[in-house]
Amino acid sequence: MITARHLEKSYGPVHAVRDLSFDVRPGVVTGFLGPNGAGKSTTLRLMLGLDRGGGTATFGGRRFVELRRPLRVVGAVLDATAFHPTRTARRHLRMLAASAALPEGRVDDVLGLVGLEGAADRQPGGFSLGMGQRLALAAALLGDPEYLVLDEPANGLDPEGIQWLRQFLGQLAVQGRCVLVSSHLLAEMGLMAQDLVVIGRGELIWQGAAAEFVDRFTGREAVVRTPHADLLAGLLQQAGVPRIEQEPDGALLLEGVDLAFVGDLAAAHGIPLHELSRRTASLEDAFLRATGTAAEFRAVPSPATAAGGAW
Amino acid sequence: MIGMYRDALRLEIQRLLSVRSTYVLVSLAVTTAVLLDLFIAVFSPVGTLSHDDTAAALTVGADLSPLSVVGLWVGVLAVTAVSHDYRYRLVRAVLTAVPRRGVLLAARLTVLGVVAAACASLVPLLSAAGCLALGRRPVLDTTTAHVVAAHLVVVVGWAWLGAGVGWLVRHAAGAIAVLLVVPLIVEPLLLLAIRWGPGKALLRPVVPVLPFSAAREALGQQLDPGRGSIGALLSAVVFGVEVVVVILLTWAVVRRRDA
Asked: pTM value?
């Protein structure tokens, strides 16, 4: 278990991370989400003792700086471009492996795991961002660690690489490891993470199962299509349905209502239904609602967009 | 803690030996120093060199010059070894492998010190062999041994100063500028002010504690014990203490700094 308690970090008067506490369970991939400037990377650096701040983070009960050979316990990806441009990929990994007394064969193993065996003796100065990510991931996996802390590991990966990463992290989690992954790729995180830690302005917004997060922040909407939408909408309003909206294509969007109730009501009044279904919101919808007031930086909508116009 | 230090040493050895700049700078340190030593020897009288000429021909005149040539190169090596961490953002990767910053700092200083000592040992050996080949026989006695030993201490000090300033400045050009400006401009100007300036009586006690002047005197007073005010050994101690002060300041800054 990774445990973070009361993490704090300030830059002058600005609180980057404020009294942040959460847990990361073994056996699942935990997504670490937040808008730009929410403090995700700062939090990860605090957990690894790289930034100085308040609070504690423990990995299996031990603080990172107390670990005798940290690479054997915690693997971290913090920056995909953190390598000397002329030190070959193999030598870069050998250098890190030396700190944990890992055998040299392990370097070739992890290069193979991340698909970089062909570039092992190339200088990483010429690597693409995706190759840099793979090298950083190889470094994190060197010690076969029980805990993985990954900051935007999918950045720069091509679709195939992202799919590989998802499956790879899933396998690691299934082996009982703790995997904490920060990402801004919400669709990808929706596929990858079973648990979520969501922060905004350095504070915890949500921690729990990803599915619960979507339910909690979006609710579950019912979609009804009928040629008598106005009539049905009036009946639903009389029945006390809290939210009824009509979409441009005529479909009714209902919230806080049971599907069976809608079906029974329509049948009782002889209203034919062409569709009666549940619409589950995406992780992105939930994220935008959850962090709506916590976004540090926000784009101003263009006049055309704001007016509902089209390009 | 000793185990962590050993682990950090292994990383630092790998780190230093796995980049080309290390070999380039070590080669430059040795070849330029030996060539300059032989240049000095060539312009010395044929036959056995005097003590002064021997010292000059084995240490590139470090007993007279504000700069130690070998020291400067290993100082640059130390600066790059540290500043590359920041330039290429390696510092986080390294600190996730060795999270105890004091252990990392000690290991890096050890490795740089060993490389500096190796350069400072190799140069007099090659220079002495070159002198003999040119028909200029160096005086190989205790005085020369003391000069060479003092030079070794000074060169290691330069390496540690380079690392310390590199950590403090985090920028190679800035750190190298500090290493050049202090001995070439700041100290000579201070010495001029002390000799001719209005507050010379007040400033005179400062002379023995100017770091690079003290390093020079640690060598020079082996040859001419009467030329300074505090002696060769004490001059070496002054230089050493000042290097340690820079390292302690570095430690105080690095341990609190965000990586």
From this structure: 0.84
DSSP A244: E
A35 touches chain B (CB under 8 A): no
Task: Please give chain B's pLDDT, 259 residues, in tens.
Answer: 888 999 999 999 999 999 999 999 999 999 999 999 999 998 888 888 888 899 889 999 888 888 899 999 999 999 999 999 999 999 999 999 999 999 999 999 999 999 999 999 999 999 999 999 988 999 989 999 999 999 999 999 999 999 999 999 999 999 999 999 999 999 888 888 888 777 777 777 788 888 898 888 888 877 777 776 788 888 899 999 999 999 999 999 999 998 8
Instruction: Find, in chain A, the residue whose alpha carbon is nearest to that of B99.
Output: A65
B10 Cβ under 8 Å from any chain A Cβ: yes
Give the residue from B21, B22, B96 with the most A CB atoms within 10 Å of its CB, the best one to mutate: B96
CB within 8 Å: B258 and A52? yes
The answer for residues whose C-beta is within 8 angstroms of residue A172's C-beta and 6 or more apart is A148, A179
CB atoms within 10 A of CB A48: 23
Measured in angstroms, the CA of B36 and the nearest CA of chain A are apart by: 31
The closest alpha carbon to A268, from A293, A231, A311, belongs to A231
Q: Is A173 on the interface with B (CB under 8 A)?
A: no
ipTM greater than 0.85: yes
Edge-to-edge, what's the strand order for the sheet holding A14-24?
A14-24, A2-11, A54-59, A62-63
Cα(B120)–Cα(B154) distance, integer angstroms? 9
Which candidate from B21, B92, B98 shows the least CB-CB separation from A99?
A: B98
